[in-house]
Amino acid sequence: MAEARIRRGGTARLTRTTGARGSSRGRGRSVKRRSWVDRLLDLLPFSEDTLQRMASWAIVGIVMAALVGIAMLLGLPAMAGQKASELAAGAGFEVEKVEVRGVERMDELPIYNIALGQVNRSMLALDLPKVRAEMLNLGWVKDARISRRLPDTLVVDIVERDPVAVWQHDGQLHLIDVQGVVLQSVSASAMPDLPLVVGPNANRQTAGLNKLMENAPALKPMLAGATWVGNRRWDLRFQSGETLSLPEGDKPSATALVNFARMDGVNRLLGRGIVKFDMRDPDRFVLRLPQGQGQGTGGSADKAGESADAPAKAEEG
Fold it and tell me: What is the largest CA-CA distance in the chain?
């Protein structure tokens, strides 16, 4: 307790003892200096209550994420999805019908087998990308679009490949498209009216053959087949029975074919009993004639050679 003293000879006044001064210094030392964390919090545009709520929600989010992770580890979502699929199938939402569109040539049975052969046929759990991928493995299918039509129908829209030739290889005949994709096997007795390409990898050259024949559109309807020789050049066979041997390379073969088409237009080379035309050498035009007819057709061969601006040579085959 502070003591008061009365000084003689003057006005009485109260003074505090040293204890009071010590107490004052004690209060001065009790003021804490603010940390950098407090100053940083003061800069945030949030009140202390808002920060507390945000921290609470963060804790709740962490707990929920942990619970979801535990559930995934235990396989609970998969179990729930499987149960939902079973319930949907039990309620009639299961693939029972398949509607196929766009099919003109191919057999539809493989499409039905894929659509109805899925392990889980529930309309909710059916893996449409997987079904589409399996259908794209069918030779005839160029593209496919799969969709659901509730409650129980799967709709399949097919884009078919167009057959352009028959490929003969290793004694087998296969229908192929312009990219050489094998569509299906065919028998010799049921061959379609399409050109026959012969030789290893000849199917992969079909697009190049079509491009080559575009240089001579008048000859294209007369083409009966083509043989890919030595994996580098074509021998063309026409419906009238003749064979035309072309040189290697896209440009030389196209030039030779154009020259042959011009000569045929002037001299009617096709259909005259000539066995083979050989244009592999750009400086010579060789005609192979049937045995015993070399003398009778030699003049025509020379004339044809003159129209091609290259010397002609007739050979007996």
Answer: 169
What's CA 89's distance to the chain center, in Å?
32
- Confirm if 202 and 172 have CB atoms less than 8 A apart: no
The verdict on domain 163-316 having CATH code 2.60.40.3710 is no
> Residue 166's closest CA among 115, 63, 237, 99?
237
Could you tell me the sign of the dihedral formed by the alpha carbons of 116, 120, 124, 127, in that order?
negative
Instruction: Find the helix packing angle between 206-213 and 250-267, rounded to 10°.
Output: 40
Extract the residue ranges of the chain whose pLDDT is less than 70. 1-48, 51-53, 55-57, 60, 63-64, 66-93, 292-317
For the domain 90-160, what is the CATH code? 3.10.20.310
3-state percent helix, strand, coil for the chain, nearest multiple of 5: 40, 25, 35
Return the number of other C-beta atoms located less than 10 Å from residue 99's C-beta. 12
Residues in contact with 100: Cβ distance below 8 Å, sequence separation at least 6, in sequence order: 108, 111, 112, 156, 158
Domain ranges of the chain: 90-160, 163-316
Q: What are the Cα distances from residue 300, in Å, to 255, 294, 311, 314?
A: 22, 10, 12, 9
Is 163-316 in the same CATH topology as 90-160?
no
Residues 156/98, Cβ–Cβ less than 8 Å? yes
The answer to pTM > 0.85 is no
The token duo for 33 is 């200096």
Write down the residue that tokens 């989010």 correspond to. Answer: 61
Q: Identify the three-state secondary structure at position 94.
A: strand
By DSSP bridging, strand 285-289 and strand 312-316 are: parallel
**Residues in CB range of 1: below 8 A, 6 or more apart:** none
Determine the 3-state secondary structure of 36 from DSSP. helix
